[in-house]
Design a protein that fits this description.
This protein is α+β, with helices and mostly antiparallel strands. Among the domains are: 52 residues, no CATH class; 31 residues. Helix content is 30%, strand content 27%. The protein has two helices and three strands. A hairpin with a 7-residue loop joins strand 1 and strand 2.
């Protein structure tokens, strides 16, 4: 009886191995390179560039730090309304210009100093800055919370 069981056990193991074997993967057909869908033609836009921000940092005993940002816009007309979208934006500094821009930086600095003189004149006409409140003995201003 035992002699009959051994071939049956081997056969059962073989059939179980086949059943547990990895199922074959899906059939895949290679269709060649993908052809992308063409992009729709863009609407007409005007390309605009402007200085979108300007920062001047002056200290009485230090070097002036001047930075600004240039931004490119796309302008599209939609009926009577203009719509703008940002295309690109970059920040620049006049502290360490490229060698080709040094002369232009010097000219800009002279114009900025002229602008500063005009702004200081404007301050005198509009009214000078308010004098700060004196500090009391505790080190806090009279009307300021601790």
């Amino acid at each position: 009886m035992r002699a009959k069981m051994i071939p049956l056990a081997v056969l059962a193991g073989f059939l179980a191995g086949i059943a547990l074997a990895k199922q074959p993967g899906p059939v895949i057909e290679n269709l060649g390179p993908v052809v992308p869908t063409p992009v729709p033609s863009p609407k007409h836009e005007e390309h605009l560039r402007l200085i979108s921000s300007f920062t001047l940092g002056n200290k009485p005993d230090g070097e002036s730090v001047i930075t600004f940002e240039a931004t490119d816009f796309g302008e599209a007309k939609s009926g009577e309304e203009n719509k703008y979208r940002v295309i690109a934006s970059e920040q620049y500094s006049l502290v360490e210009p490229k060698p080709a821009a040094r002369e232009l930086r010097d000219q800009i600095m002279l114009k900025i100093r002229d602008l500063e003189r005009d702004l200081l004149h404007y301050v005198e006409i509009s009214g000078p800055p308010r004098v700060r409140e004196p500090l009391d003995q505790t080190g806090a201003g009279a009307g300021r919370p601790y």
